[in-house]
Amino acid sequence: MSYQIELRHMRYFLAVAEELHFRKAAEKLFISQPGLSRQIKILEEALGVVLFERHNRKVVLTKVGAYLKVEFSLQLETLSHTLENAKLLQDGKSGALKIGYVGSAMQDVIPNLLLRFEKDHPNILYNLKEIDNQKQIEGLLSFSLDIGFVRLERIPRTLEIKPILKENFCLVLPKDHEVDAGNFKSLRQFKEASFILFDAQYSASYHEKVMQIFDDCGFTPLNSHNTIHSSSIFKLVENKLGISIVPKSLAQKRGYQIKFIELDMISQKTTLSIIWNNKNTNPMLKEVLQFL
Fold first, then answer.
1. From CA 234, how far away is CA 232, in angstroms rounded?
2. pLDDT category of residue 195 using cuts at 50, 70 and 90
3. Quick one: which of 146, 176, 240, 289 has the fewest CB in 10 Å?
């Protein structure tokens, strides 16, 4: 069966699907409303389906329309990604990698990876973004990211994950705190302390693991601040607004009046993993996965 569908039909449909209003979609597309309605009708006739239902001036997606909204969005994202890579090749680049990461991955893992990978792939354009785990998943599903560095245990079935670093947690204290590695015995020493923790939106599974540490110590922490950035945690600890627990890799961060005590006596560990979308056709993604 041959469908006389052009890219513009997909874009017209997606505009209406987003706005659920023909006039607003037409204004967004800079075309007339009758012209847009006609193009949607052509698309429906070519596919032999009904995409929208109209009830008292209200536009609603049909089940077919809702399905095609997701699929067309993915197809256009993939095409856009492919054309971006083609342009890079034209400009003399081998390709590009869009990388998302949680802050702890930038302390050691990512710099070492890029330095070693660049030796055999010198003409790569890198775009790095420090974003939380959930936004990385969204970016990978929409192809706005090629690869992510996350602290997650459960991911959507459409994505792939590979653990690359398992490490201990560390307690973070002001530099002049009376407790140090020599007299530290247990987190129970800090039962009355205020804790500054990564927000649950950073990673629900990571947050749950940290809370398990407190459960095993027999107390619920006094949570004074939540954040998704380690620099905020360290600044707050430095100013004695609380103490914290972070992955060991963040203990390499310098420039703060703080100290770290490695919690190597507890069972909980945290895992840094790489995550990617197998439907991503970026050739550089395949290269970096092979390298890893």
1. 5
2. very high
3. 176
